[in-house]
Amino acid sequence: MDINFSEAELAFRDEVRAFLKDAWNEELASQAKQPGSYKDVQVAWERKLNSKGWAAPLWPVEHGGAGWTPTQSYIFENERAAVGAPDVSPFGLKMVGPVIYSFGNDAQKERFLPRILNADDWWCQGYSEPGAGSDLASLKTKAERDGDHYVINGAKIWTTLAQHANWMFCLVRTSSEGKPQQGISFILIDMTSPGITVRPIVTIDGEHHLNEVIFEEVRVPVENLIGEENKGWTYAKSLLAHERTAIAGVADSKRNLAEVKKLAAAEVNGGRAMIEDPIFRQRICDIEIDLMALEFTELRVLASMSKGNGPGVESSLLKLKGTEIQQSIQELKLDLAGYFGTVVQDGASNEQVGHDFGDVARRGFMMSRAATIYGGSDEVQKNITAKFVLGL
Amino acid sequence: MNFDFSEEQQMLKDSVARFVQDEYDFEARNKVVANEAGFSDENWQKFAELGWLSIPFAEDLGGFGGGATDTMAVMEEMGKGLVAEPFAASVLMFGGLLQASAQSEERDALIAAVIDGSLQGAVAYAEPQSRYELKDVKCAAKVEGDTYRLSGEKSLVLNAVSANKIIVSARVSGDQNDEQGIALFLIDADAEGLSKTALRTMDAQLVANLKLENVPAQAICGADEGLAMLQQMRQQLIVALAAEALGIMEKLNATTLEYCKTRKQFGVAIGSFQALQHRMVDTFMAAEQFKSILYRAVCSIEQNESADSIEINVAALKAMLGKAAKHIGGEAVQLHGGMGMTDELDVGHYVRRLLSINAAFGDGDYHQQRFANLSLAS
Which domains does chain B carry? Predict the structure, then answer.
């Protein structure tokens, strides 16, 4: 039992702090508060990380990763969240990057990995379809071989930020033989190819994050296929194992809960601060205790991985519990906003009424509902845990 | 960073697990608790021989020099076997307070007798009106020459029926809820003026209510040190009992899972039903989260974090214990169906021990309130 950081780890923490002070500066932080700035801020931020060699903490060094230990990664996450700097956009660095360096050929690695590290490309994920959600393996988007190309027809849905993307990593059906999982291939698609239509889907927060992407006779060079034809399901599954550590969002939840406490001390009802309200106090404490436990669940997973073991059975609860906590914190914040949590900024006017967190709280609450749906819904996660952990 | 036991701690844990497996199955345990004392003297002597009774004591007192991790390792395994021998009451509580009190030849001799298994001890801190407050003390101590005389009532004293010596909290000065003026006293279990009424609790333990009328007593600390010593004892015991509770939760989850894999209804194992699978995933997660917060509390003690930090972690631990105990215990009964309601099955016995631990030293709500005061203080 030892959770003390080593001398080297403490020195690393100092280095992270110094880097963040410089890289996540006031200019970038205030730019991030402007509407519509998301992509520009992300790209600028990720390039700063890349120039330090920290864009991809867990990638192997030979592919341009930082080669951090899980503990270093944990330290960085905590420091990053504490100053309010964003996580990297996951699609390139956390999702397709590891698939390319694990299963791609040399030409693909040379072509794509440096551009992912430097945020030169914006990737999106083509998995879900109108008829294939939790039952992902039933996907129907078809890729048929025609000489040196695949010809793709079908539709993907819930494609996050496809409106910014110039590349998509996509699961397509190349065979209808055998089990549904066996006929799926993993292919990279240039989003500027003729025949692709991106249709916006406005979500319950009133924002445009999601899209439907339609493919009509889209020609994709065969050289964009990752690994072997019909093995795409295996590659997609391995992707899930790569980013276990940050999946619970503990560091960000700690920051968000601390912010709620601060707001609750300032928000007054009937002459009493909301942080003195017995029911509100109880709700804060319920969440905080759960989060304190989850932080150690994550540390247990990291400790196990540091020894070169697998992540351990306890890792299966990181997403389930982590997203439950994220949503509960957003609920607290929305409730704290009271009347003003209902006002849509920029609806009829941009007039600022009451405190300034109502609009953020509303959008945050609405958007957080997605956390228990994407990446395998709660119910699917529980099915998986029942089967692989409990042996049912 | 690691969450491993040392080789020595792992051996200790394995030896308790082996004892439970070889000599303490459910049937054997039922015989033990039916004894007049509520436990087995023979087992107690075995614990002494195996060195378990020496765990929390410093090496220069003849002890093993163990810390919170060692206690956790032992208690988790004892929990799995529902071990009824008074390890917590006699060794951790009574022995722990002795160790924290001023050094004297008599004290060292008493600790040696706890370690060799010849002495049983108890600690009397609760009173009829006190609920969970350690500072709510009416029992009065009056000076008489070099000694004191105690008068008052103490409630539900663990191991008092078998104890040779009892440590009692009593008020030297001040009002009922004052934090100052509480001292701890040592009395003989057969002292004149002391009467005991034995009671059995739902987890098959024997406890006793004590009536004290001018009982001769000897102070083991100063008049303003008693409350702090009791609070320190509570902190250590919460961690130890939480480890026992973890062992019980793991055992209940394992038993329930096994039952659901084998019990057939509608022609299939009931574990194939999604409604039950998801409930078992929930109880699995509850036990893992509880283990994490226990590790958090143990690490903060072992690494000498600030007193506030330790207190906040221990309060969080006990608050979560209350919820997890009722959740996991309730689901174990529910998923066993009618069988879960029977006294014949071990499930109900584990559940009752969990509920006893929930109440010990303040329930989940009480500690959540303490947690709120510590965590939300600005």
Answer: 7-115 (1.10.540.10), 121-224 (2.40.110.10), 228-375 (1.20.140.10)
pLDDT at residue A34, rounded to an integer:
82
Determine whether the interchain pair A320/B285 forms a contact, defined as Cβ–Cβ distance below 8 Å: yes
- CATH architecture for segment(s) A244-388: Up-down Bundle (1.20)
How far is B309 from A292, CA to CA, in rounded Å?
12
Report helix, strand or coil for A299.
helix
Look up the pTM and report it: 0.94
Residue A92 to chain B, least CA–CA distance (Å): 30
Nearest CA to A87 out of A252, A298, A254 is that of A252
* DSSP conformational letter for A286: H
Q: With bands split at pLDDT 50, 70 and 90, how would you rate the model's confidence at A315?
A: confident
Interface of A with B (CB under 8 A): 1-5, 71, 261, 265, 275, 281-282, 284-286, 288-290, 292-297, 299-300, 302-303, 306-307, 313-314, 317, 320-321, 379, 382-383, 385-386, 389-392
* Amino acid (one-letter) located at B305: E
pLDDT number for residue A243:
52
B273 pLDDT higher than 60: yes
Domain boundaries, chain A: 7-88, 123-232, 244-388
- Tell me what the mean pLDDT of segment A30-57 comes to: 92
What's the CATH class of domain A123-232?
Answer: mainly beta
Please state the ipTM of this predicted complex.
Answer: 0.95
Identify the CATH homologous superfamily for domain A7-88.
Acyl-CoA dehydrogenase/oxidase, N-terminal domain (1.10.540.10)
Give the relative orientation of helices B364-375 and B307-336 as an angle to the nearest 10 degrees: 150
A243 catalytic? Reply is yes
